[in-house]
Design goal:
Order of helices and strands of chain B: EEEEE
Shape of chain B: elongated
Distance between the termini of chain A: 37 Å
Number of strands of chain B: 5
CATH class of chain A: Mainly Beta
Largest sheet of chain A: 4 strands, antiparallel
Number of helices of chain A: 5
Radius of gyration of chain A: 16 Å
Structural class of chain B: mainly beta
Shape of chain A: globular
Oligomer: heterodimer
CATH architecture of chain A: Sandwich
Strand content of chain B: over 45%
Chain lengths: ~160, ~70
C-alpha cells in the first residue's frame, strides 16, 4: 500500500479527493521507528504533526516531578494510537509546546510527518483543503476527548 | 467503511487504544491491548457515522491466563 493509500484511511484526510491528499503528502515524509523510540517529548517545542501509517505508538504524560524525590517524573500512559491515527495536532493548531510524550511500542512502525508551516501555507492557499482538514482535526480531538472521558469513567482511575 | 474504535478496559485506565479497523469488533472477540489480552463485552456507536467513517466505543475486560 502506498503512503497516499495509507493516509486516505486516516480521518485527517476524510472528504478530500485523491489529488488533494497528494498535495498534503507532498509536504511531508515517512519516518520509521522501533519499540522504545521517542517520537515527540512533552514540553518540547513543536513544528510538526504526525499520522500513524502502520504500527502502534503510546501517548504518555508526566505526573510531575515530586519535590525532594529524586528521579524523573512518573509517566502515565493515556492512550495507544494505531494505524490512521494522528498526533501532534494540538501543537499544530495552537503552536504550544508538546503536551505529551509519544513513543513507538511496535517495531517497524511507520509515521508520516507533516511540517506545520508548510501545512499552514497549503491551508492558506487552498481554503477548501484547509476547511476540511481543520474540521477533521476538530473531530479527532473531540473523539479523543470522548475516549478519555470513557477511560476515566470505565477504567476506574484518576490517571 | 472504516471503523474508528475507542477501546477502554474496565479497571485498567492506562490500556485504552484508538485504532482504525476494516470490520467492526463484536462482543466476545479477543483483542490484545498493550500486554493484556482482553475480551470485548460491549460495542456501541460513540457518535453518528460521517463520510466513510463509523465511530465505535468498545468496552473490554481483561482475560486471565487461564481464561
Amino acid at each position: 500500500m502506498s503512503v497516499t493509500e495509507y493516509l486516505q484511511q486516516s480521518e485527517l484526510f476524510s472528504g478530500l479527493t485523491s489529488e488533494q491528499v497528494e498535495q498534503i503528502v507532498a509536504l511531508g515524509h515517512e519516518v520509521f521507528y522501533n519499540t522504545g523510540d521517542a517520537i515527540i517529548r512533552e514540553g518540547e517545542p513543536s513544528d510538526e504533526m504526525y499520522v500513524v501509517c502502520s504500527g502502534m505508538v503510546e501517548v504518555t504524560v508526566s505526573r510531575g516531578a515530586i519535590p525532594d524525590v529524586p528521579g524523573p517524573p512518573q509517566l502515565t500512559s493515556i492512550a495507544r494510537l494505531g494505524q490512521g491515527q494522528m498526533f501532534g495536532e494540538m501543537a499544530l493548531v495552537d503552536r504550544g509546546a508538546r503536551s505529551a510524550t509519544v513513543r513507538c511500542v511496535q517495531d517497524d512502525t511507520v509515521v508520516y510527518v507533516i511540517p506545520r508551516q508548510r501545512f499552514w501555507d497549503l491551508c492558506d492557499s487552498d481554503h477548501t483543503i484547509g476547511y476540511i482538514v481543520m474540521r477533521n482535526i476538530a473531530a479527532d480531538l473531540s473523539f479523543k476527548l470522548r475516549h478519555r472521558n470513557l477511560q476515566m469513567r470505565l477504567g476506574g482511575g484518576e490517571r | 467503511m472504516i471503523y474508528k474504535v475507542s477501546y477502554v478496559v474496565i479497571g485498567k485506565p492506562n490500556l485504552g487504544s484508538i485504532v482504525n479497523l476494516d470490520a467492526p469488533p463484536r462482543v466476545g472477540d479477543r483483542v490484545q491491548l498493550g500486554n493484556e489480552m482482553c475480551e470485548v463485552i460491549e460495542v456501541v456507536d460513540l457518535i453518528p457515522p460521517r463520510e466513510d467513517f463509523a465511530y465505535l466505543h468498545v468496552t473490554c475486560r481483561p482475560v486471565d491466563e487461564a481464561g
